[in-house]
Amino acid sequence: MNRRRGERTRRREPGARPADSGRPAPDRLKRPPQFDNWLSQQLRSLYDPVLEEPLPEDLMRMLEESAKRGDKPEEDEDR
Q1: What CA–CA distance (Å, rounded) separates 40 from 49?
Q2: CA–CA separation, 27 vs 12, rounded Å?
Q3: Residue 1: which of 50, 39, 23, 9 has the closest Cα?
Q4: What does pTM read for this prediction?
């Protein structure tokens, strides 16, 4: 908490939104669909060539060895 000593907190009514959080209102976040199309196209042009690259030999070897042993992927604790 970042309150000073003796400073009182204001109580909000249930369902009330906090004061301006520095983010634009949801209606100002709307973008034209042309922007989404443009962005998607730009991202594809950057990342498609990377997806076409072959996997490094040492990584392929590790995956094959893991598959032969029947190793299961470790569960991520953050999930």
Answers
A1: 15
A2: 23
A3: 9
A4: 0.38
